[in-house]
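Checklist before submission:
- one chain only
- standard amino acids only
- sequence pasted in full

Submission:
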Amino acid sequence: MDASPVVAVSVRLWLVRHGATIRTGESLSGWSDVPLSSEGREQAGALGERLRRRSFDGRWTSDLPRARETARIAVGGAQPDARLRELDFGDLEGRRWGEIAPSVQAALLRFDGARPPGGESVEELRGRVEAFLSTLVPGRHLVFTHGGVIRMLLRERGCDRVVAPGSITILPWRGAGG
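Returned file contents:
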């Protein structure tokens, strides 16, 4: 019988997308300072109920206010790190989807290879997030971040999906391509 090798997962990420904001579903937020909506604060409270009895080896958050507030409400706070920020949408910050040229919309939907005008590329996003992940010690890490960051990490593992505000995605992580 062919035995498969046992591979230990050194890091398990509990990725939390921040709660809904006053602009969720209306316009691109990226690095903009957009506060949580009342619904987003309720989502953060519900996250706290789910996470209360869990232990983590590290608690991290994007330094953007919407992620920090979600972390504060849910678990009393987390260590901020700018590398966990959303994609910088540059000139598209605050713009509604219908105001964006169709070719740029297509590139953003395709995700890989996208670079919003005046913003950062998805490759730059990947580089800074993977630089953060490379610093994590083995164990379970709670990470409050953004939809683009979570989508990028899921795509790295062959699963492309958009996650809802206030949701948790658990992802084993052994490093780039692992």
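Reviewer check: Residues 88 and 153 are 16 Å apart (CA to CA).
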